[in-house]
Amino acid sequence: MSDQIDVHVEHRDAPPPPERKHPNTCPSCGSHYRDDELEAALWVCGQCGHHFPMGARARIDWYADEGTFVEEAADVRSEDPLEFFDLRPYAERLAEAELNTGLGEAAVIGQAAIDGHPVQLAVMDFTFMGGSMGSAVGEKFSRACDSAIERGVPLVSVTSSGGARMQEGILSLMQLPKTVCAVEDLHDAHVPMLTVMAHPTTAGVLASFASLGDVTIAEPGALIAFTGPRVVQQTTREKLPDDFGLAEQNLRFGHIDAIVPRADQRAHLVRLLRLFA
Amino acid sequence: MSDQIDVHVEHRDAPPPPERKHPNTCPSCGSHYRDDELEAALWVCGQCGHHFPMGARARIDWYADEGTFVEEAADVRSEDPLEFFDLRPYAERLAEAELNTGLGEAAVIGQAAIDGHPVQLAVMDFTFMGGSMGSAVGEKFSRACDSAIERGVPLVSVTSSGGARMQEGILSLMQLPKTVCAVEDLHDAHVPMLTVMAHPTTAGVLASFASLGDVTIAEPGALIAFTGPRVVQQTTREKLPDDFGLAEQNLRFGHIDAIVPRADQRAHLVRLLRLFA
Amino acid sequence: MTERDQELNLRRRLSGLSRLPLLRGARVDGEAQRLERQLERLKADTSDEAIWRSVELARHADRPYTMDYVERLIDDWVELHGDRGRADDGALVTGLGRFGGRTIALIGHQKGRDVKERLDRQFGMAYPEGYVKAMRVMEIAERFGFPVVSLVDTPGAYPGVAAEQHGQGGAIARSQAEMARLTVPTVACIIGEGGSGGAVAIAVADRVLMQENAIYSVITPEGCAAILWRDAGEAKKAAAAFKPDALHCLELGVIDGVVAEPAGGAQTNHDEAAQLLGGALLEALEELEETPGEELRRRRRAKFRGMGVYA
Amino acid sequence: MTERDQELNLRRRLSGLSRLPLLRGARVDGEAQRLERQLERLKADTSDEAIWRSVELARHADRPYTMDYVERLIDDWVELHGDRGRADDGALVTGLGRFGGRTIALIGHQKGRDVKERLDRQFGMAYPEGYVKAMRVMEIAERFGFPVVSLVDTPGAYPGVAAEQHGQGGAIARSQAEMARLTVPTVACIIGEGGSGGAVAIAVADRVLMQENAIYSVITPEGCAAILWRDAGEAKKAAAAFKPDALHCLELGVIDGVVAEPAGGAQTNHDEAAQLLGGALLEALEELEETPGEELRRRRRAKFRGMGVYA
Ligand SMILES: [Zn+2]
Ligand SMILES: [Zn+2]
């Protein structure tokens, strides 16, 4: 069933655990990098162009003019309304994620300027529970919309998510209409929304606010799919095209406006911000 | 080129000339009918269900409650702004068409009631120069929209046309945006438009008002295509599916709401009129 | 636990609702009374066994589907077909009809009763084209002021190659956006499986109801079990953990009411199930029709924007 | 005929315009002056030979295409891709950019310069997906108040099996309807071939211009000849009969102005052609921007509803 994707993807596309392979090893060409090398290269492989995951804070540092970012809603945290317990309690997973990532949730929002253009940022982070969207992520994204409306500045949204956060049950599904309603408020206020889809943008996030940007660009090689390749294969036994679900296929099929390598994204956003100013 | 369709279709789908085959011979099963037999059967073959062309006046008699039809814009006639002359002058073709059909143009419009529901009618007639749309047809359809708006009653539009009328050159193409603008005025006034597509509904008429109904039904076997099969074949050399462009294919591909045999159309329209009342 | 203890427990649970953000002013008037009326229903069994029974009944082969309700509740039904682009998706039925004296637009998943129909309708799993068709009918409803009723019954949106290539994620997002824009009254009811994005795509409504034995969830129990317990056989355990049943959805403020079914489940008596569903839909519509369209939209968005639990 | 006779003849022709219904009140202010300014241009040759020269120049392999103008006229160009459903149609380019200090949305057919690009772009013949893409960009323009500029250059919409199956006729109709709904200023210019429905789909604009050697027609000369003369070789005769050239389109009230080209045709000097086109587009936009959006829409519809000649 297609809804399995939400967590399948989260697991499948999670960075491999460190004990198996060093996270700075390029999965495409096998090149190794020191942390500072990768950081200087915006987490893009200098050999083959593979885009490593980029954390929310690093991305904000890269997009925003120095010293302009003012975080909002930093204190919003997930609760555990279902007292969800599978092999481990959800509460424990949350605590661990915060500890490992230094983030309170899978999204960071705030005000910033990009090349002097004031913007609102809403940036997801895949390392926090696979970027999954629960009540906290939904709330933070919605507040970013409101803040953009209040200030009359464009919203720049960066997505990276395996989908809805299963551990919050039906409330995680409700973050789809919640964020959609927030974007509709944005639309009604004639505030632009520019979306950058990073790997992976799937399931519940793709099926809600991620797909509603006025202009949508994607990172090269990003998986952008409602249902990921493994579940499609398992469910339908179809033969998958080589680039199934990748940004390149999505461009060909008309779902996104452009694929922009990370190094060019800031300039691309600045150009768009001038157009929507 | 796709624009060739406008007149190709007009010629290809015109009823075969009387000297070749009697017009009351069913092209599907070869059955013969007397005029009065066919008329009593709504010009549908009793053997195989083939829908013969139905003239505008006959269709109005069939749809409208007896004595309710009041024709409008009956005096609108085509002019010949280009003094168009191919193998014969356009003016001569027009005169001949009027003589042969007893119609002033390829569309008849007016007020009527259907099962007591007041409606506006705009009905095309394929026998008048292949139902082609020139300035007069465009004007009559537009006036039908205005009349429907003024009276606040649904517009029932029956299409049967090979496309724009080449002999009026670019002015015939302008009947596309003209009729589209008329329908948009209708939409803005929240007046419903119910469309019945008869054989053939092609080219310029399909690419304008015919496609903009709120609900669209088609007659069985009607050709509904922007570019007809012969031109597609000649231009692209593609192998055509058996039911290329027919109502049945259009239903499968999501272009129309239903295929309704002629005998059931009146009841279907009455049901829709109750819903939109 | 005595019956009295149970009721006390339920009352506590109900009062606990007011801690949820969606009850902090975002809800419509009369909400408290409506929830009050649900108290009786909340006395029902909410054990893990009861949840699993809902899962089974929601998927019961004899459960009434959308068209079974259309036949019983709608006059002058005219089905509308096609997305005006490339397909007519049989998994999602759309049309116009008379219901309680008014014209409504109806949108509903349809699973199919026999093998052939199930295949034709992809077991109720819609392609993007299905959601585009739904949006077209919503636009007609908006233009003519017809209320929109949607009946949700899908394991999820179709998970295939073509569905992805035609933009499944975007279609689900835009269908929700369209519902968030409407100024006509909208009522949705989960009548069987309310599976993930494919369900919520047509359920962004002023009133969202669930039949007593319907389920509404972000993932199937099997899918959840396969991932978290690494064993699809643990579906029952998964369902108990994420609680897709109507009572828990009501408790979490995700739905606005529970619609009773005949004793033993809707499959036992389609006519009675239809009567009960019809009554609930009509009550919801009549109440909504008193509110101006712009205000309906404002409240609808506020309701969904209030959903979730966070600190 | 002396030059004086010619001018008298042209003045007569110009005054004859007032008999056409579209000049009976439906036109915008300043129309008379604009036509007056065209008088100079109307002195040009309107013989059958001249018409055929236009047909040849409109199709000239070196004629500037949409992207040639974008490169020369637009700053901060960002192309927008895709219909959000199933394809990105290369025959129709859409994007945003700065033009004369304002952000505009631009829509244009693109034929392709070399063999590979021509095949990729289907010789400028768009699929329904191309028109859906155009509509999406029009919606962005409407939401943010960007004027829409469209450059028309197509033999016609793509005449293939898939194009029909995906709803070519409906897409062309809906693209026109979308343009009829906009409240932002819209300017279209035929920059080469304006072929039939595929052209008018993006040309329902407040101001429709034509380059001096562009053609705008309901059918290709070859198509017309094949049918009416039963000989495609009679294309020249057909063109003379249906008069697709700019001057006759102006005379018939179908376009609002003629844009000069470099001597010998736009293909001789792309830079100069772009400068002339840019000036005309800018003049039209600046004039339109003085009018409120609702009024623009009203006048736009009135203009097109006034087109045609009948008794
Ligand atoms: Zn590499
Ligand atoms: Zn027969």
Task: Give your account of this protein's structure.
The complex is a heterotetramer, with two copies of chain A (277 residues) and two copies of chain C (311 residues). Chain A is of the alpha/beta class and 277 residues long. Chain A folds into two domains: 41 residues, no CATH class; 224 residues, 2-enoyl-CoA Hydratase, Chain A, domain 1, CATH 3.90.226. Chain A contains eleven helices and eight strands. In chain A, strands 1, 2, 3, 4, 5, 6, 7 and 8 form an eight-stranded mixed sheet that branches. The longest helix of chain A has 17 residues. The radius of gyration of chain A is 18 Å and the shape is globular. Chain A starts with a helix and ends with a helix. Chain C is of the alpha/beta class and 311 residues long. Chain C has one domain: 2-enoyl-CoA Hydratase, Chain A, domain 1 (Alpha-Beta Complex), CATH 3.90.226. In chain C, strands 1, 2, 3, 4, 5, 6, 7 and 8 form an eight-stranded mixed sheet that branches. The longest helix of chain C has 19 residues. Chain C is globular and about 50 Å long. The structure holds zinc ion (2 copies). One zinc ion binds next to loops of chain A.
Set down the secondary structure blueprint.
The complex is a heterotetramer, with 2 copies of chain A (277 residues) and 2 copies of chain C (311 residues).
Chain A: H1 5-12, H2 35-40, H3 56-63, E1 70-72, H4 90-101, E2 107-114, E3 117-124, H5 135-151, E4 155-161, H6 170-173, H7 175-188, E5 193-202, H8 203-206, E6 215-218, E7 224-225, H9 229-236, H10 247-252, E8 258-259, H11 262-276
Parallel strand pairs in A: 3-4, 4-5, 5-6, 5-7, 6-8
Antiparallel strand pairs in A: 1-2, 2-3
Helix pairs in contact in A: 5-7
Chain C: H1 3-16, H2 31-42, H3 48-58, H4 66-73, E1 75-80, E2 92-99, E3 102-109, H5 115-120, H6 128-144, E4 148-154, H7 161-165, H8 168-181, E5 186-195, H9 196-200, E6 207-211, E7 215-217, H10 221-229, H11 235-242, H12 246-251, E8 257-259, H13 270-288, H14 293-305
Parallel strand pairs in C: 3-4, 4-5, 5-6, 5-7, 6-8
Antiparallel strand pairs in C: 1-2, 2-3
The complex binds zinc ion (2 copies).
